[in-house]
Amino acid sequence: MKKWAHLLVALWLAIGITFCSQSPDSLHLSRERLVGMFNQKVESLFLFPKNHLALYYRDQFIGFISSQEAYEQHLKKIYENNYKKKYPNSHCSLGNGFYLLKQKGFEKIENQDEKIFAYLEKNEAYTLKTKAVRFLKEGKEYTRIYVASEDLYQKAYQRFLHYFVSEDNLASLKKPTSQFKDYGTKIRSVSFPENTKIETAYALPKEIKSSEEEVLRFLEYGDLEKRNTYVAKEGDQLDGIGTLNGGLSVEQLKRLNANVKAISEGQVWNVQYFRSPLEVVVYKEVLKKEEIPFRTEYVQDNQLKKGEWKQLQAGKNGFQNVLYEEKWVNGILVSGKKKSHRVIEEAKNALIAVGNKNELAIGTGSYIAPVKNPKISCKWACYAGHEGLDFINAYQRWAQVYASDDGTIAEIGKNDTLGNYIIIDHHNGYETVYSHLKEKAKGELGSIVKKGNVIGWIGMSGKASHPHVGFSIRQKKTGKLMNACNGLMDCTGYLK
After folding, report:
1. Would you give per-residue pLDDT tens digits along the chain (496 residues)?
2. Which phi and psi angles does 159 have, rounded to 5°?
3. What CA–CA distance (Å, rounded) separates 401 from 122?
4. Measured between alpha carbons, how far is 495 from 172 in angstroms, rounded to an integer?
5. Where are the beta strands (DSSP E) in 184-226?
6. Which residues form the G5 domain (predicted)?
7. Bridge partners of 369?
8. Using an 8 Å Cβ cutoff, are 434 and 370 in contact?
9. Phi, psi (5° rounding) for residue 471?
10. Do 398 and 437 contact (CB within 8 A), yes or no?
11. Rounded to whole angstroms, how far apart are CA atoms 156 and 8?
């Protein structure tokens, strides 16, 4: 015991000699090194080294926090007072470039916690524990959002899904595949987004989405800040507003403006369709009843003068059931194809006798849609001054355009309004006009065209906001335009 006592005395003396031998200059240098942003001073020296909590902002030393306990109590206070109500079940941590390092030293540092904590609060140094939703492309993150909870994200996600597929639709998918009992549409499968990963993370409070609406807006538009709008005018109709704004369908407009019940002049409409980081893919089958257009056959009759004709047999359209497959992505029809068909009534061709060597192609008066898979994106008078029908091919954006009836090409041209256009004379008092074609129409002036012949391609030349073919029927003598859907053409199922 005496031996150990002598050793301890010797150690204390050695330490005392060391401290006493420190010059004022060396102590001054130590103080300078520890000054930091808040002029913290060395109050005394410890016999053994102690842990210090050094606060940094990036590479800049800010100051020393008195203890881990004081630091944790401060974070708890900040969370309880500022964030708990809006972000429950979380806690505060340092972030935004601020961090702590544990450093050993013999110095007792002046307590400046109050100033340091005020500085942290002023400079938004706090992050909150939350959930990060990462959006991936080919396995790599391309954007992310922070949400207050995973449950919050899932609720917004379900609302986004229901834009395109209802709970009833989802429930029906769990049942055996049902056959069509009537014409219509059935959802056959849904592909849900698999490009997200949810994990725990820390984020600044201002970065965290804390409401369903905030999360839903991101799922709808991503980072897009400015949306296109349209101010309604007197006489506007839904399909007209859609046509004037990129060809939005009535259903899409209603989806974007769910709170709007009726159109009124001066009303602001959202016409910016979704730009979501998610893709909800819905596969549908559609059963339609379609006409099989009759054709017109001509026979020479030497008893008739050249230019004369008479009908020997009236034509009659046939009908067929056609089953289509469609692919919809976020409510937009992106592709479709015919799966099968069954003829339920054959077409009966018309028979017309014409004078010897008559080369006129006389229209039947029964008009077909100028495109396959026809949909009318803008009906007659869908906006002020619109006298015609805007047709699109539902499954093909730049599809072929067909002659609606027999006739001869009366005019091919281009102007600022109609773009590329063609006019067909049907020699029965009527002409048809096809406008906004992609390029110059096919054929030569005076050449004969038959119902269903290709005369061009869908385009958006002239004054057009989306790809379509403008279609009009007009009286040749007066130039009066006529609504083809008023008894001249069966438009059933054509409206979008």
Report:
1. 444 444 433 433 333 333 333 333 333 334 445 568 898 998 888 889 998 999 999 999 999 999 999 999 999 999 999 999 999 999 999 988 999 999 998 988 999 999 999 999 999 899 999 999 999 998 899 999 999 999 999 999 999 999 999 998 888 888 888 889 999 999 999 998 888 999 999 999 999 999 999 999 999 999 998 999 999 998 899 999 999 999 999 999 999 999 998 999 999 999 999 999 999 999 999 999 999 999 888 888 888 877 788 889 999 999 999 999 999 999 999 999 999 999 999 999 999 888 875 566 889 888 999 999 999 999 999 988 899 999 999 999 999 999 999 999 999 999 999 999 999 999 999 999 999 999 999 999 999 999 999 999 999 999 999 999 999 999 999 999 999 999 899 898 888 6
2. -65, -40
3. 66
4. 27
5. 184-191, 196-203, 208-209
6. 278-358
7. none
8. yes
9. -125, 130
10. no
11. 70
Domains (range + CATH), the chain: 42-124 (no CATH), 135-173+184-270 (3.10.350.10), 285-357 (2.20.230.10), 374-482 (2.70.70.10)
Residues 110 and 187 sit within 8 Å (Cβ to Cβ)? no
Helix (H, G, I), strand (E, B) or coil at 44: strand
pTM across the whole model:
0.78
User: What token pair was written down for 141?
Assistant: 């993150």
Distance CA 66, CA 69 (A): 9
Nearest of 3, 125, 139 to residue 56 by alpha carbon: 125
- Give me the phi and psi of 284, to 5 degrees please: -125, 160
Contact 283, 189 (CB under 8 A): yes
d(CA 363, CA 406): 5
